[in-house]
Amino acid sequence: MSVYERDGVYQLYVDDMQPQGAGALAVAFEQLKSRLAAAGLFDESHKQPIPKYPRRIGVATSAYGAAVADIKQITARRFPAAELVIAPTVVQGDGAPESIARSIEQLDKMGLDVLIVGRGGGSMEDLWAFNTETVINAVYTCKTPIISAVGHETDFTITDFVADMRAPTPSAAAELAVPDREEELRRIAQLESIATRALRSLLERENQRLDSCLARRGSVGAYISTRLERLQALMNGNRQQIQLRLERENTRLERVLEQIEAYSPLAVLRRGYTLVRHTDGSPVTKKEELSPGTALRLQFADGSVPVQVLEEREDE
Question: Can you point out the beta strands (E) in the chain?
Answer without folding.
Answer: 2-4, 9-11, 56-61, 83-88, 114-119, 146-150, 165-166, 275-278, 295-300, 303-308
